[in-house]
Write a structure and sequence with these properties.
Layout lengths: L4 H16 L7 E2 L2 H4 L16 E3 L4 H14 L3 E4 L16 E4 L6 E5 L4 E4 L5 H8 L4 E2 L12 H7 L6 H4 L2 H4 E7 L5 E5 L10 H5 L8 E8 L1 E2 L3 E9 L2 H13 L6 E6 H11 L9 E9 L1 H17 L5 E3 L3 H12 L1 H8 L2 E4 L2 E2 L5 H15 L3 E5 L5 E2 L1 E5 L6 H18 L17 H5 L2 H14 L14 H7 L18
Parallel strand pairs: 2-4, 3-4
Antiparallel strand pairs: 1-2, 5-6, 6-10, 7-11, 8-9, 8-10, 12-14, 12-15, 13-14, 13-18, 16-20, 17-19, 18-20
Helix pairs in contact: 9-14, 10-12, 10-13, 14-15
Bound molecules: flavin-adenine dinucleotide.
Flavin-adenine dinucleotide (FAD) binds next to strand 3, helix 5 and strand 10.
Length: 493
């Protein structure tokens, strides 16, 4: 690591010059006032100025950037829209940020084969907007879909409200083109239902920018349902609401969306969007049915019966499309609404078996007392994917530290009940220590072996997502015998 500021400035100059030699004018940012907007992603508590930012226009220029970095040994942090919540696109002091913002063309949309070929910087929502005239849309719908890019979605295996029924990114992407650190273009996956060979597409999706740069994505489009309606059900306590989620799925129903918001979430969002939420409820569930009119009527009736049986109080069902969108608007705006009641929030992302929802929500309530911080729960309940928003004020001494400890304890609880430390936001820098809780040394060694196979010089987003065994040892989650770590050959950055 370069600590001498004059040496860092000289290195910046060297890298910027080399990139400027292979890119058109205006594609390299090096002055601090230009690179400042890239110092963090959606996890704004962690910041780092990059050495240089490169903004290539096309695949050939991406390859040129990679060649320069390979030659000079410069780490590369890929970046889409920077909405990631785990610090995946957070810069490295001696590395460049490679932004895909200018690779933003929809290359082809084929309504007959229900596919679209798009560049990585295309926004998630822009795909559905382009497909709408054909009665089609792209199903994975992160709440950030107005801004986040398909390249970022691929790297994070993003989900959203409708993923319970329609699947995550991995279920809706058919093929990706990838620029490798060696300077090749490889295509992973295919438009055919199955492809021979190892399924490297599945390995790549969710790899957080550590294996290659996505330069093109072929997505599956699905027909828009003829009809959709949503139930809003109120509950007197979160435990009953959590159990109701398990009952809906156990009844053999797969809703198009099944989301939960607790009282804190409802009270922060209702004055913001006026969605018509029940302010007296301890928790509300939003359960959507889609399909033909008859299918929707049938599913709404069955879900209503299950919810009533499970202890729901007031139940409202949308009767118009405008009302359906209004019910969802509160859920979709929950994160921004948190900013109205708290200077900072820390959004966690863990997944648990649905049957443990009530237990984990009770555990989180106890942690609120232990850490002296409020927590709003708004999440993809049908998937068991929690998003506790820990509310804190970074200006108060120790609150960030307490929020981090609170978050780590939530993730440890998720693992303890058989869940995982991330549902859809990735590991990045935020949850790297929690990876030591989730995985054994041999499993981490296998991850590094895959990383090394794609990226031998270890230049792509190093230090993210996979903890070194030294890091786990420092975190106290690895047994060190006679002062020696197992797998001493693994990287130590
Ligand atoms: C308000 C809000 C709501 C959100 N809601 C959801 C939600 O419902 N579901 C969900 O899953 N996520 C959600 N997110 C998280 C975030 O939007 C997603 O992770 C999204 O996929 C990130 O896309 P991005 O373009 O912003 O990527 P970035 O944040 O720029 O990057 C994310 C990761 O992808 C890598 N990357 C980006 N582009 C490429 C590329 N071309 N090639 C290789 N690697 C690349 C980066 O290195 C980084 O590791 C939310 C975020 C916010 C702020």
């Amino acid at each position: 690591m370069i600590t001498d500021l004059s040496k860092l400035a000289a290195r910046r100059h060297e890298v910027a010059q080399a990139l400027a030699a292979v890119l058109p004018a205006g594609c390299v940012l090096a002055a601090p006032e230009d690179t400042r907007p890239y110092e963090c992603d959606g996890l704004a508590a962690y910041r780092q100025m990059p050495l240089v930012v490169a903004l290539p226009h096309d695949e050939a220029q991406v390859l040129a950037v990679l060649a320069v970095c390979r030659g000079l040994g410069v780490p590369i942090v890929p970046r889409g829209a920077g909405t990631g919540l785990s610090g995946g696109a957070m810069p490295i002091a001696e590395g460049i940020v490679l932004s895909t913002a200018r690779l933003n063309r929809i290359v082809r949309l084929d309504a007959t084969s229900r596919t679209a070929v798009v560049q990585p910087g295309v926004r998630n929502l822009a795909i559905s907007e382009a497909a709408a005239p054909h009665g089609l849309y792209y199903a994975p719908d992160p709440s950030s879909q107005i801004a986040c890019t398909i390249g970022g979605n691929v790297a994070e295996n993003s989900g959203g409200v409708h993923c319970l029924k329609y699947g995550l990114t991995v279920h809706n992407v058919l093929r990706v083109r990838v620029a490798t650190i060696d300077g090749d273009i490889v295509e992973l996956g295919s438009e055919a239902p199955d492809a021979p060979g190892l399924d490297l597409l599945s390995v790549f999706i969710g790899s957080e920018g550590m294996l290659g740069i996505v330069t093109e994505v072929t997505v599956r489009l699905v027909p828009k349902a003829l009809c959709a309606r949503v139930i809003m059900a109120s509950f007197g306590d979160v435990v009953t609401a959590g159990n109701a989620v398990a009952h809906v799925i156990a009844a053999g129903i797969i809703p198009a969306g099944l989301e939960m918001m607790d009282r804190t979430s409802v009270s922060m969002v209702e004055p913001f969007v006026h969605a018509g939420y029940d302010l007296d409820a301890a928790a509300i569930l939003l359960c959507e049915a889609d399909g033909t009119v008859e299918e929707v009527d049938d599913e709404i009736a069955r879900m209503t019966a299950v919810l009533r049986e499970a202890g729901a109080g007031a139940i409202a069902v949308s009767t118009t499309e405008a009302e359906r969108l209004r019910f969802w608007s509160g859920r979709k705006n929950a994160f921004p609404a948190a900013g109205r009641i708290s200077p900072d929030y820390y959004c966690m992302d863990g997944t648990i078996p649905r049957k443990h929802l009530a237990q984990v929500l009770t555990g989180i309530a106890q942690m609120e007392v232990k850490y002296g911080l409020r927590c709003a729960n708004v999440f993809h309940a049908g998937d068991g994917n929690l998003h506790p928003l820990i509310l804190f004020d970074a200006n108060r001494p120790d609150e960030l530290h307490r929020a981090e400890a609170f978050g780590a304890e939530i993730l440890a609880l998720c693992v303890a009940v058989g869940g995982t430390i991330t549902g859809e936001h990735g590991v990045g820098v935020e949850k790297i220590d929690s990876m030591c809780v989730q995985f054994k040394p041999t499993e981490l060694a296998a991850f590094f072996a895959v990383k090394k196979a794609f990226d031998p010089p270890m230049l792509l987003n190093p230090g993210k997502a996979i903890p070194t065994l030294h890091r786990c040892a420092e975190f106290g989650r690895l047994r060190v015998t006679n002062g020696a770590l197992p797998h001493a050959n693994l990287p130590r950055f």
